[in-house]
Design a protein that fits this description.
The chain is α+β, with helices and mostly antiparallel strands. The chain has 21 helices and 22 strands. The protein folds into two domains: 140 residues, Penicillin-binding protein 2a (Domain 2) (Alpha-Beta Complex); 360 residues, Beta-lactamase, CATH 3.40.710.10. The longest helix is centred in the first third of the chain and has 35 residues.
């Protein structure tokens, strides 16, 4: 028989002693309690670790944007997006709670069964569409985000694994295309991608409402009036706006063609483009208002100044002529009322490039506007502002600006002489508005009187802009457009515009209308100029919008009107005098 070695005996004794300590044959009560507590502590740690692991996995499954695409519903989980209202509290944009249908392809047992049963309940999806969606490598595939209660119940009744319905939200624009370019739209995640939705995204995302300066009633008037005239003259588009000249609030801003932001995916590129703020154009003769105001303000011209317009003017071989030639000299008022390019050129030569450029800069015509929209543009102007540029800019060529640019600048010349940056936000009565004095009251009084004669005088170019009882003053502009893909201007393609103010003796509102590429018509005797195309739109807007804006018809012979207009402007030659009202 083999004896155990001392080493083996020691090991056996040590193991036996350890076993007796952990599990003694006759347990000591105190030691048993200590062992029990140790076992419970170990079991608790293990159970807690398992619970924490399961909880972490569950949270990860819910919040992971990579596996379940839950990032798509972040907007719905946060505070509701703020609403957008017009100045009178009418709703332009709001967030509606909706139910959406989505699939988890890995949980779907039979893709063909799912496609066959869901297709009849989804008008915009075929069986092939659903099968294609189920083939994506994703745990979250959205099929529809506008599930009605009836369809919700029908889908749940199918009892299909992997077919889920969850709560989301939808941005709704109840007035559709009426103010599309202003309001803009959001993407599928509820983030602003255009218009006010984008520029004020932080405010709206925080649940704060936005009140615009727009009056939806005036907006509808401008949009319909402009649309009808574009159709009548077969134009390719246009823009229109109404602005409060006393505080810079834009009451209406329209760009046509437009689109329905509720169906943004269906909009064409041309419809999405905002001609009123993003497009920059050579505005033509409406710039003669600024040319006249600058000349009067700088004392380079007076009402008695005379300019020979009987012959075309040649500058560096470039001919300048008038649409309606006059075989005599014209005074400053006649240059504006008759819209003489030759006369304007000579007025601008006296002003000079340095003064002209400085005024254009002060009037905001050389920089991007501070408007609350992302869709704005930098004006285009000459790098070398010499004699030729000075002359062509005086009658609206060589400087390309947006309608908002033109409105802000001309409001200063035709208003009280102060430049106020246009805004799309409603201003409280106690808001401090930044005002920059550009022209004196004496200068603007003369300019406004001339603008009234452009409408009221028999030889004025904006006779069709007159709205009886509202004392409209205006200036027309017809500019040839640049040739596409070639140098020079296309004499058959025009941009027509009219800018107006009313009531002109104490101007409150400025109206701008632009029609792009109008075609001559039989009823217009083959003309497609601003006087025929854009001026009638001004009259229609004023007649329909004035009551909405609280402007009542007036007696144009009232004493206060005579006091606020220059009564003795010499128009017509041979000493003829026509009252400016």
């Amino acid at each position: 028989m083999r004896n155990s070695s001392p080493r083996n005996s020691k090991r056996s004794g040590f193991a036996a002693g350890l076993w007796r300590r952990v599990w003694p044959s006759r347990p000591d009560p105190d030691k048993s309690r200590r062992v029990a507590r140790a076992r419970l502590l170990i079991a608790g740690v293990i159970a807690s670790s398992c619970f924490m692991g399961i909880s972490a996995k569950a949270v990860w499954l819910v919040t992971s944007s990579d596996t379940l695409g839950a990032g798509k519903s972040n907007a719905a989980a946060s505070a509701p997006r703020g609403a957008i209202y017009d100045r009178k509290g009418r709703l332009l944009a709001s967030t509606l709670p909706m139910m959406r249908l989505h699939l988890d392809p890995k949980m779907v047992l039979d893709p063909y069964e799912v496609a066959q049963k869901l297709a009849p309940l989804l008008p915009s999806k075929s069986e092939a569409d659903i099968l294609k969606a189920l083939g994506r490598n994703s745990r979250f595939v959205e099929l529809d985000r506008k599930i009605t209660p009836a369809r919700h119940a029908a889908i749940l009744a199918l009892g299909l694994p992997g077919v889920n319905i969850s709560q989301t939200s939808l941005r709704s624009y109840p007035h559709g295309a009426e103010a599309a370019h202003l309001v803009g739209q959001v993407d599928r995640d509820g983030r602003g991608i255009a218009g006010i939705e984008k520029s004020l995204d932080d405010r709206l995302s925080a649940g704060r409402d936005v009140h615009l300066s727009i009056d939806l009633g005036v907006q509808a008037i401008v949009r319909q009036s402009l649309f009808d005239q574009i159709e009548r003259f077969e134009g390719v588009g246009g823009a229109g706006l109404v602005m409060d000249m006393q505080n810079g609030e834009i009451i209406s801003l329209v760009s046509l063609p437009d689109y329905d932001p509720n169906h943004f995916a269906d909009a064409s590129e041309d419809a999405v483009f905002n001609r009123a703020t993003k497009g920059v154009f050579e505005m033509g003769s409406i710039f003669k208002v600024l040319n006249t105001a600058i000349a009067l303000e700088t004392d380079t011209a007076s009402l008695g100044s005379s300019y020979d317009v009987s012959k075309p003017l040649y500058i560096s071989g470039f001919p300048i002529s008038d649409y309606h030639p006059y075989d005599r000299s014209l005074n400053l008022s006649e240059v504006l009322v008759y819209s003489s390019n030759i006369g304007s050129a000579k007025v601008a030569e006296d002003i000079g490039p340095v003064l002209q450029r400085s005024y254009m800069e002060k009037l905001g015509l050389l920089s991007r506007p501070s408007l609350e929209l992302p869709e704005t543009s930098q004006p285009l102007y000459p790098k070398k502002w010499g004699r030729l540029s000075t002359i062509t800019i005086s009658y609206g060529y060589g400087l390309s600006v947006s309608p908002v640019h033109a409105a802000g600048a001309i409001a200063a010349a035709a208003g009280n002489g102060e430049f106020i940056a246009p805004t799309l936000l409603r201003r409280d009565p106690d808001t401090v508005i930044e005002r920059v004095r550009i022209f004196s009251p004496e200068t603007t009084k003369k300019v406004r009187s001339m603008m009234r004669l452009v409408v009221s005088h028999k030889d004025g170019t904006a006779n069709y802009a007159d709205a009886p009882g509202y004392l409209v003053g205006a200036k027309t502009g017809s500019a040839e457009k640049l040739k596409k893909g070639a140098r020079g201007y296309n004499k058959k393609v025009n941009l027509t515009s009219v800018i107006a103010a009313f009531p002109i003796h104490n101007p409150r509102y400025l109206v701008f209308v632009m029609v792009d590429e109008p075609k001559p018509q039989k009823f217009s005797y083959g003309y497609a100029t601003a006087g025929w195309v854009a001026a009638p739109v001004i009259a229609e807007i004023v007649k329909k919008a004035a009551p909405v804006l609280g402007v009542l018809p007036m007696d144009i012979n009232a004493p206060e009107i005579r006091q606020n207009l220059e009564p003795n402007l010499n128009i017509g030659g041979k000493g003829a005098i026509f009252a400016s009202f």
